[in-house]
């Protein structure tokens, strides 16, 4: 619930959390999810285990040294998915075209 004051009157505006703010936000979310899925598919072609997983110490480089509870499997890893989502947002905010191959994604 959001309260907004205008001319000494208080308006109460209710917003549903699940609703997108506008059509462009939902379109951007769908484009981001498509890109993330494409990057996952591309990463699977090149890597059996997560490229940011250290086999020797069983640590994840993306979570800054935290232990990987998925043993390097990155198919459903929320840390890897969040990394890709952040990369997509970084490319879009800079006005650059997101890469079409995982090897082109820079850390």
Number of helices: 2
Q: Averaging pLDDT over every residue, what do you get?
A: 81
Structure classification: alpha+beta
Q: Widest sheet: strand order?
A: 3-4-5
Quaternary: single chain
Compute the number of strand runs: 5
Gyration radius, rounded: 19 Å
The helix/strand order is EEHEEEH
N→C terminal distance:
39 Å
| Uncertain residue ranges | 10-23
Sheet-strand content, in percent, reads 5-15%
Q: What percent of the residues sit in helical stretches (DSSP H or I)? A: 25-40%
Largest sheet: 3 strands, antiparallel
- What is the 3D shape? elongated
Please give a handful of descriptors for the protein shown.
107 residues, alpha+beta, three-stranded antiparallel β-sheet, 5 strands, 37% helix
Explain how this protein is built:
The protein has a domain at 47-98. The protein has two helices and five strands. The protein is an alpha+beta fold and 107 residues long. Strand 1 (2-6) and strand 2 form a beta hairpin. The strands form two sheets. The protein has a three-stranded antiparallel sheet, with no helix packed on it. Strands 1-2 form a two-stranded antiparallel sheet. 37% of the residues lie in helices and 15% in strands. It starts with a strand and ends in a 14-residue tail after the last helix. Helix 1 (23-46) crosses helix 2.
Chain-wise SSE layout:
Blueprint: E1 2-6, E2 9-13, H1 23-46, E3 53-54, E4 59-60, E5 66-67, H2 78-93
Antiparallel strand pairs: 1-2, 3-4, 4-5
TL;DR?
The protein is 37% helix and 15% strand. With 107 residues, it is an alpha+beta fold.
